[in-house]
Amino acid sequence: MTSDHCSLETVTVRRVTTDDAPIVANLVKALFNELRDGAMVPQYRSESISDVLAETERSFGLLALDGSRAIGVLMLTEAVAIFAGGIFGQITELYVMPDFRSQGVAAMLVKSAAELGRARGWKRMDVGAPHQPRWSRSLNFYRSEGFVEVGPRLRLDL
């Protein structure tokens, strides 16, 4: 039976390794499934997880664990840009299992990501919030963690 709460005293955050690919895959697939209302996730996204985890020079992941159970993941990448003043991090995925939300788990992941970024000399950390107003809870979370809005983000599929 699934617990619908956790004690932050039992939650730990650690770096992801390539051995964690199946765990990360399950959590990220759950994220994509939620964002896409159950629509099929393109196969290339699932297939890219191991490649992303192997890219240890510029891709990083953090797992939140309640005991030995993975309950959240944060993936981020390192980039460089003039607008950012040099090296910066970008959160690419952040997911906490629904039963463990609003209990401080995502905040622990973001704090750990910020610590990693400071240690690597990042000037800032960016994130793209999901579509509004539907995902306003996510936007409000990021604001509560000190993020400020800088405008919409766009993409071009290649």
TrEMBL record:
* Keyword annotations: Acyltransferase, Transferase
SUPFAM superfamilies (UniProt xref):
Acyl-CoA N-acyltransferases (Nat)
Gene3D superfamilies per record: 3.40.630.30
GO MF term list: acyltransferase activity, transferring groups other than amino-acyl groups
Q: Which InterPro entries match?
A: Acyl_CoA_acyltransferase, Bact_Acetyltransf, GNAT_dom
Where the record annotates domain N-acetyltransferase, the positions are 11-158
Tell me the protein's name.
N-acetyltransferase domain-containing protein
Organism in which the protein naturally occurs: Paraburkholderia ginsengiterrae
